[in-house]
Design brief:
Layout lengths: L2 H11 L3 E4 L6 H16 L4 E4 L14 H5 L7 E5 L11 H4 L5 E4 L10 E4 L6 H12 L4 H14 L10 H13 L3 H9 L4 H12 L2 E3 L4 E6 L1 H7 L9 H6 L6 E7 L6 E8 L5 H6 L4 E2 L3 E7 L3 H17 L1
Parallel strand pairs: 1-2, 1-3, 3-4, 4-5, 7-8
Antiparallel strand pairs: 6-7, 8-9, 9-11, 10-11
Helix pairs in contact: 1-5, 2-5, 2-6, 5-6, 6-7, 6-8
């Protein structure tokens, strides 16, 4: 029996399903979760989706309100999607970590938890695994196709990142046949920006800092400056990816101070071959992918946080 067939059998045998997303949800976890909820419906099992954090406004089109509003039921089958470790469940961790029955993920740094783990590090996105489940279940409608396509498109950067494979394109081709509106999904993911995001882009470029002969670039984003600009932390979610586009840069880092916890900083890294972002972030207790990873850092002030990260990243170039 394939993993997809096993998951379908477990869903059909369940009274209800509860699907968990990771904290600060991206397109992969959201698209995968709501697509899987639709699969549950096709298989005759009620489902709901739980989010530790609200999604960014630009990703709200991936949310299906009926699954968010669905009430919990006793003896639910609990499935986590795109959640690399228990810590990534955020505020859901304490209640749900020990109750996870199925873990579906693609992170190479994944920490095993749950009764059954289906983890494929070679998959470009968890959405590729959800596609297999949807195909097995016969859930091949246009809305499900849109959600899965968004998941895969999001984690591959519109099929431009190095994690993109022939499998990714094969999945996309099938989803188009199922009715996915690829142009609309791509526009919503990549071609729409809020006023706050536009301000954030200007702020990132104005405050970028180079090191290691221009091969390393970082940007520190203090809460005080965000407040002065009228931007939010979420407006800077693409900062490290923006900086990686600068000519000559091999490793880019954004350091975002949290407004509610001023000694906490969210670190996001992007790299070019052969630099391993996941290995760097693992040293901070985080993880992710080889070319894109993140972590949370504790420091007494913004300057100390920035210096700590620059020292860590500079080791790559001095090795």
């Amino acid at each position: 029996m394939t993993n997809a067939a096993y998951v379908c059998e477990q869903i059909k045998a369940a009274k209800a399903v509860c699907i968990l997303c990771h904290t600060r949800p991206d397109g992969d976890t959201l698209g995968s979760a709501f697509a899987l909820a639709r699969v549950c419906r096709v298989l005759g099992t009620p489902a709901r989706v739980l989010l530790a954090d609200p999604p960014a406004a630009r990703l709200s089109f991936l949310c299906c309100p009926d699954f968010l509003a669905a009430p919990g039921q006793p003896d639910e089958l609990v499935i986590s999607v795109d959640v690399a470790s228990p810590a990534q469940l955020g505020s859901l961790c304490e209640t749900w970590c020990d109750r996870v029955d199925l873990k579906i993920d693609h992170h190479a740094t994944a920490v095993p938890f749950g009764r059954f783990c289906w983890v494929e590090p070679d998959a470009a996105a968890t959405g590729e695994l959800i596609y297999e489940i949807a195909r097995e279940a016969g859930a091949r409608d246009a809305r499900t196709a849109d959600l899965i396509y968004a998941a895969v498109c999001s984690d591959t950067g519109g099929f431009r990142y190095s994690n993109t494979t022939a499998r990714s394109f094969g999945v996309a081709a099938d989803l188009i046949l199922w009715g996915a509106n690829v142009a609309d999904v791509a526009e919503r993911l990549f071609d729409r920006q809020s006023v706050g995001e536009c301000r954030a882009i200007g702020d990132v470029y104005a405050n970028m800092r180079f090191a290691c002969g221009g091969r390393l670039v970082s940007v520190l984003i203090p809460a005080e400056r965000r407040a002065a600009l009228g931007t939010t932390e979420e407006d800077y979610s693409n900062a490290s990816a923006l900086l990686r586009t600068v000519e000559g840069v091999e490793l880019s880092v954004s350091i975002r101070q949290q407004s509610d916890q001023p000694t906490k900083y969210r670190v996001s890294m992007r790299s070019r071959d052969p630099i391993d972002c996941a290995a760097l972030c693992a040293r901070l207790g985080g993880g992710g992918h080889v070319r894109a990873a993140g972590a949370t850092l504790t420091a007494p002030g913004p300057a100390q946080a920035e210096e700590q990260i620059i020292r860590l990243c500079a080791e790559v170039f001095h090795a």
